């Protein structure tokens, strides 16, 4: 028997899903397969009021080949597919919007590896999106289109995606805030159950999210100042609003990082205080045991002339001397501790 080729959740061309939209305000997406998409692309000039969205899985090696053969995407799009991790950005290339959007996986669990990238090419009639792993935002957009949500333009599709990404980020921040609140409550109650290392890991993930998900301000500012001529004014305005939503979420994330830093410092102070107390107790025990150890060592020598050796009350005399020295040493140590406190 021959094994069936791996599909990676897509068809033989790497297409995960495809939709055709009209230009009417209430236009709903009609599902497309790879053959129907290829036919529409070959005759796109005959349908100036329509646009399509094709979503590809780059884990299927056939995806890039199909895109090269049947689309005329800017070379910058293909170059971005092979770049290393970069922050979210939207820029122009040959009158086409090239977007690199970092998003979290479906099963995000506050691990740095749970962040992956979605690449998009957006012009007036064609929206191409591609990813290597299932992501929350684009799958949320896919479900919305599948359920009949109207999309009026290709740019609105991008705006919808950015807002879905912001919503996913808000949920992550809320979960992190609830975790930090619980840690603070335990800390105030004197129950130190969380280690600084776990808080440090949470803080590192939040820093990575902020660095990758924050749009590059300069490129986005230039784009919003001079958007492509085919971008409607309402779409440009909504794109500005979506970036403002991102800014608010990132501000909340920055304040959460500061809270985590303060909690780490408080835990470190408590740990240091506990260590100092343990060291003090150890010092007191050592000081209190010092007189008896010295006297026992002296009296244990096998030499002549040991005092009180023939005295019937010698033992109690030595006990009294040791007790006196011990009480004096303890009094001096505790008085010094009170003066320091």
TrEMBL record:
Coiled coil: none annotated. GO terms for cellular component: plasma membrane. It is found in: Cell membrane. The chain crosses the membrane at residues 279-303, 315-334. The keyword Cell inner membrane applies. Its main location: membrane. It is a multi-pass membrane protein. CDD domains: ZntB_u1. Pfam families: CorA (PF01544). Belongs to the CorA metal ion transporter (MIT) (TC 1.A.35) family. This is Magnesium transporter CorA. The lineage of its organism: Bacteria, Pseudomonadati, Pseudomonadota, Betaproteobacteria, Burkholderiales.
């Amino acid at each position: 028997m021959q094994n069936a080729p791996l599909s990676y959740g897509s068809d033989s061309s790497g297409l995960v899903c495809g939709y055709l939209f009209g230009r009417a305000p209430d236009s709903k997406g009609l599902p497309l397969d790879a053959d129907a998409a290829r036919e529409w692309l070959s005759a796109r000039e005959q349908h100036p009021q329509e646009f399509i969205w094709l979503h590809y899985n780059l884990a299927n090696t056939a995806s890039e080949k199909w895109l090269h053969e049947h689309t005329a995407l800017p070379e910058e799009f293909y170059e971005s597919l092979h770049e290393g991790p970069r922050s979210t950005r939207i820029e122009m290339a040959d009158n086409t919007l090239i977007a690199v959007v970092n998003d979290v996986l479906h099963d995000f669990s506050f691990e740095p590896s749970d962040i992956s990238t979605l690449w998009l090419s957006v012009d007036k009639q064609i929206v191409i999106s591609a990813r290597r792993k299932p992501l929350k935002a684009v799958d949320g957009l896919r479900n919305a289109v599948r359920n009949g949500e109207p999309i009026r333009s290709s740019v609105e599709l991008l705006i919808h995606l950015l807002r879905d990404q912001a919503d996913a980020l808000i949920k992550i921040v809320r979960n992190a805030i609830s975790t930090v609140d619980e840690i603070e409550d335990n800390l105030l109650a004197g129950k130190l159950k969380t280690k600084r290392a776990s808080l440090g890991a949470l803080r590192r993930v939040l820093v990575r999210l902020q660095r990758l998900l924050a749009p590059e301000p300069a490129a986005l500012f230039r784009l919003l100042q001079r958007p492509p001529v085919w971008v409607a004014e309402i779409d440009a305005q909504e794109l500005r609003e979506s970036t403002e939503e991102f800014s608010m979420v990132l501000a909340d994330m920055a304040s959460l990082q500061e809270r985590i830093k303060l909690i780490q410092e408080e835990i470190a102070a408590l740990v240091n205080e506990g260590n100092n107390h343990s060291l003090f107790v150890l010092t007191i025990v050592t000081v209190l045991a010092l007189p008896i150890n010295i006297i026992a060592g002296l009296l244990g020598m096998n030499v002549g002339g040991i005092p009180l050796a023939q005295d019937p009350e010698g033992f109690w005399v030595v006990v009294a001397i040791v007790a006196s020295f011990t009480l004096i040493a303890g009094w001096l140590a505790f008085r010094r501790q009170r003066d320091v406190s």
